[in-house]
Design brief:
The chain is α+β, with helices and mostly antiparallel strands and 499 residues long. It has helices spanning 15-19, 42-47, 52-56, 58-65, 133-148, 187-195, 199-213, 223-244, 295-314, 318-330, 332-347, 356-375, 380-392, 407-421, 429-435, 445-456, 461-470, 481-484; strands spanning 24-26, 36-40, 76-78, 82-84, 87-89, 97-104, 110-116, 155-167, 171-181, 247-248, 270-271. It has 3 domains: 15-181, no CATH class; 211-341, no CATH class; 348-435, no CATH class. Helix content is 43%, strand content 12%. α8 runs antiparallel to α9 and α12 (356-375) packs antiparallel against α14 (407-421).
């Protein structure tokens, strides 16, 4: 009996498998007993050159769940190390994930197609290799919300239920996430290559990362050093974007920092509501290592681990290499501060004058605002939409003053802000532009949990409603008012990584 050929769903061109032997293990996903497509990102599928109908067909669903790789796929479990909460794990890797391959999309971009929850691999470290419906839908929802907020991120192509139960605190319905990224190269990938002691492997990885993500580094005097600087700059901009929308990643281990500068791995993540630099939501972050206000410093810490990994390629001896890398590492704070200032100026409609003296003035103005938000437990997201209403002179029920307890402090800050804006304070274009930057809808924690709870028992309607809101975040819509409001006062929100 002849065996049917696998379907041609994507046009694969798998450079990582061709060029990076030593950093992966060929592997096949577990067979799902009764796969069912829960969510398909049709627009992303079209970007990838796939036919939506083919992905919805049984063969397409089997490919997206990992049961039957499509034609051209070369599934591998990727190898990497990682500092997890500050402790080094030399051999992490894709314990429950597979890189199916790379697709050159309709825009000519090379993009990884990667599965999460597709079963145990040689890197599983005792885990079951599976994932549950709730955490996979969370990653789908939050990553698509981040994309809509124009923040670099992995994308979610699909979530497929497996038809089996996975054991966590209770038995939960299993699922696999199919996600898309510029690549899945991480700081931890470089750590793994460096720890292997194979300098040739480290050099191949560096050359590959430069060619794929930061080609300008090719012509630098020291390409590895230029790569480090490019990654640091990309991450400074990324973390500033997180901070400007109150996003808390929750698990900023070195295996969760990409070389491309994309947000990856939405495990115990959440959006902060009442402003608090100490906000943390992860069930396992007992010391607040990855709290909201700690994120810039922890990103620099992770990047120091990248620099350590690259030292053998920067100079012949460690001392000389460190002397070259250290000034770049120390440039983190000026780069991050500049990126954050630019984001916050835009959120507040503050024009950039070009006068260096304004940087200090605006930094102080923003810091004082954040102090007011913290003191009065003001919802971060709601404030900026309300601030635009204040400039427009809208009804007092919608402007920012009603969010504060210390009205005198708010009035004083408002006067300073209006003075800084100058003529822009009375220009209708200022609040209108602010509304194109400041979202109405984010994945509110209570709404996320309500949607995931319903989805776990088979009701996807709340999930799709929330997804509709957060993927059009800047446009206020009738009937979605509840999704724009903060959660109940006093709620303590805890998230779990799902493993």
């Amino acid at each position: 009996m002849s065996v049917a050929a696998p379907p041609q769903l994507f046009a694969f061109d798998n450079s990582f498998v061709r060029e990076m032997e030593g950093l992966y293990v060929p592997w096949q996903g577990a067979v799902a007993p009764a796969p069912e497509l829960l969510v398909l990102n049709e627009a992303l599928a079209v970007e990838l050159g796939a036919e939506v109908a083919a992905l919805r067909a049984p063969e397409g669903v089997a490919a997206l769940v990992g049961s039957a790789p499509p034609a051209g796929a070369e599934p591998v479990a990727m190898a990497y190390s990682g500092h997890q909460f500050g402790s080094l794990s030399p051999r992490l890797g894709d314990g429950r994930a597979l890189l199916l391959g790379e697709v050159v999309d309709a825009g000519g971009r090379r993009r990884d197609l990667h599965l999460k929850g597709s079963g145990r691999t040689p890197f599983a470290r005792g885990g079951d290799g599976k994932a549950a419906v709730g955490p996979m839908l969370r990653e789908h929802l939050v990553s698509e919300a981040m994309h809509a907020l124009v923040i670099p991120t992995t994308r979610a192509l699909a979530v497929v239920a497996t038809g089996e139960r996975v054991m966590r605190e209770t038995a939960l319905p299993g699922a696999v996430l199919a996600r898309v990224a510029s690549s899945h190269l991480r700081v931890g990938t470089f750590q793994y290559a460096s720890l292997s002691g194979d300098i040739a492997l480290l050099q191949r990885l560096t050359d590959y990362a430069i060619a794929r993500h930061h080609p300008a580094a090719t012509d630098a005097d020291v390409p590895a050093l230029a790569l480090f600087e490019a990654v640091l700059d990309a991450q400074a901009k990324l973390v500033a974007q997180w901070m400007s929308v109150a996003f808390v990643h929750g698990v900023m281990n070195t295996d969760n920092m990409t070389i491309s500068g994309e947000t990856i791995d939405y495990g115990p993540c959440a959006f902060m509501e009442a402003f608090d630099p100490a906000a943390t939501f992860s069930s396992i972050d007992h010391g607040g290592r990855y709290a909201y206000g700690m994120q810039p410093a922890l990103a620099q810490w992770d990047l120091a681990r990248l620099a350590e990994s690259l030292l053998p390629l920067i100079a012949d001896d460690t001392e000389s290499a460190a002397a070259l890398a250290t000034p770049i590492l120390e440039s983190w704070w000026p780069r991050y501060d500049a990126a954050f200032l630019a984001r916050m100026r835009a959120k507040l409609g503050i024009p950039v004058s070009g006068d260096p003296g304004d940087d200090e003035l605006d930094t102080t103005l923003i810091a004082d605002l954040l102090g007011l938000l913290r003191a009065d437990h003001v919802d971060f997201t709601s404030f900026f939409r309300a601030a635009a209403s204040t400039l427009r002179g809208d009804d007092r029920t919608t402007d920012a003053r009603g969010l504060f307890l210390n009205l005198a402090a708010w009035d004083a800050w408002l006067a300073r802000w209006r003075e800084r804006l100058g003529d822009a304070a009375d220009d209708p274009a200022t609040p209108s532009t602010m509304d194109t930057i400041n979202p109405v809808y984010i994945p509110r924690n209570h709404a996320v949990e309500d949607a995931l709870t319903a989805a776990t028992v088979g009701d996807l309607a709340p999930y799709h409603r929330l997804l509709s809101a957060v993927t059009r975040p800047f446009e206020a819509r009738a009937g979605f008012e509840d999704l724009a409001a903060p959660g109940p006062d006093g709620d303590v929100y805890v998230t779990y990584c799902g493993t």
